[in-house]
Amino acid sequence: MDNAVRAGGAHPKASDRLEMMGQKPKTPVNVKKADALPPMTIRFMSVREYATHRGVRHIDVRRALAAGRIHLSDNGLVEPLQADKDWAATAIPLAPTAHAATVKDASGRPVTFAQARTEAELLKQQSQRLRLAKQSGELVDRSKAINTVFGLARRERDAWQGWPARSAALMAAELNIDAHRLEVTLDKFVRDHLKSLADVTLDLR
Q1: How many CB atoms lie within 10 A of CB 47?
Q2: pTM of the model as a whole
Q3: pLDDT tens digits for range 107-127
Q4: How far apart are CA 62 and CA 74, in angstroms?
């Protein structure tokens, strides 16, 4: 038999066995080892180049160097990858802006600095308008106006209270009636009239 192994003979090769089984041996493929990657080249930058890289002024980079936020390599240049990490790690948090920070007004209500500044500007404009109105005579001092009105009312009251005594005798002679009785009657009605006027409220708001 073709596939018999002779006594004392060598074992058939794998390719011979495949041929005896009716299969063709596969052509061996030479597998090459993966080419080794070339070593990474570190790129260095000058201070100005790194400033352009970060989008800042070169003086900002120099300040970061002086503050120890980033460092120069032994060759006196900036290694951007490491510098970027150091820059981010030592970044100073921004303070709240004027629009975001808040204060409290007189009533304790929280308002932003922008709102407080706007209200201050409105108060300033209002004060200016009031000053101009006062200078032009369109506006008078409230306390002065109140004192003037009450002074006029007091003088008016005193004049009316003295009127019956001054006029009763003349009126009695004109009407041919008792002067004393007329004075008492006039005084009563005048006082009732003045009392009704005292109930009038003066609003100078």
Answers
A1: 17
A2: 0.34
A3: 777 767 777 778 888 888 888
A4: 16
Structural domain spans, the chain: 47-89, 102-135, 142-198
Phi-psi region of 65 (alpha: psi -120 to 50; beta: other; left: phi over 0): alpha
3-class secondary-structure state, position 118: helix
3-state SS assignment for residue 63: helix
For 44-66, what is the mean pLDDT? 92
Q: Please give the Cα distance from 175 to 193 (Å, whole number).
A: 23
Predicted pLDDT of residue 176:
93
Q: What confidence tier does 177 reach under pLDDT thresholds 50, 70, 90?
A: very high
Beta-strand runs (E) in the chain: 102-104, 110-112
Q: How far is CA 26 from the centre of its chain?
A: 78
How far is the CA of 174 from the CAs of 40, 45, 138, 162, 184, in angstroms?
Answer: 130, 120, 49, 19, 17
- The one-letter amino acid code at 115 reads Q
**45 pairs with which residues across the strands?**
78
